[in-house]
Amino acid sequence: MKSLIIKDVYNILHNMKSLFLMLFVFLFLILPKGGAAAYAITCCILCAMMIVTTFSFDENAKWEKYAMVMPVSRKDLVLSKFVVLLFFCIFGMVFGGILGIAGSTIMGKFHIFSLTEWLELLCVCLAGMVISFFLGSMVIPLLFRFGAEKARALMLAAFLLPVLLCSGLYFLLRSLGVILTDTVILTLICASPLVLILWTAVMYRISLRIFKNTEF
């Protein structure tokens, strides 16, 4: 599986110039108003979307057909996509955090000697990575089922659905008089890794089933 991961990372390096350009453009668009936190989350999501590009490269090279005649198991091929997605999310978190801190410090919106601001930004960066991996793992089954081009049209719906569900749940709880206290929020944050692991396992199983049923 290591070779599969290296393949995707190596292929995506050829597209890094456009990615960096896009990230720098969003730096000037988001940082002045949203600050380092908003920019870090944006970077995580944009980098997570690069998983679609890896599928596009595979389709153009007819890679999956070639891989099936090699000693590569379908389980490893599917799992490698989730590992690559995790790498992309981590890269987006680190890149967005560093650049966001530098830019916010220059603009006077971030105080490097404030421990509170560092902890808040760290929590936001981790939350951004979790959210981007959650959304990206939702797209991977669509990519295996419909291919990169068709999945691009469905990706927006896949991203909006959990946002709408969370918003609806929030307004429902508020209408019922349930207040999201700091304790409740902290509990949700602590439970998020377990939820993410379970969610990833489900998406992996769905992706593997789709790929196993695919004829080449």
Structural write-up:
This is ABC-2 transporter permease. Pfam families: ABC2_membrane_5 (PF13346). The chain has 216 residues and is mainly α. 26% of the residues are buried. The mean pLDDT is 84.
Features:
about 220 residues; mainly alpha; 7 helices; about 85% helix; globular; transmembrane; ABC2_memb-like; membrane; ABC-2 transporter permease; transmembrane helix
Question: Topology, please?
Answer:
Elements: H1 2-13, H2 16-48, H3 50-60, H4 63-67, H5 74-106, H6 115-175, H7 182-212
Helix pairs in contact: 1-5, 2-5, 2-6, 3-6, 5-6, 5-7, 6-7
How many strands, what sense, and barrel or not for the largest sheet?
Answer: none
Query: What fraction strand?
Result: under 5%
Low-confidence stretches: none
Number of strands: 0
The outline comes out as: globular
Distance between the termini: 21 Å
The run of helices and strands is HHHHHHH
Q: How many domains is the backbone divided into?
A: 1
- Rg on CA atoms, Å: 19 Å
Number of helices: 7
- The percent range for helix content is over 70%
Average per-residue pLDDT, rounded, comes to 84
- Structural class of the helix and strand makeup? mainly alpha
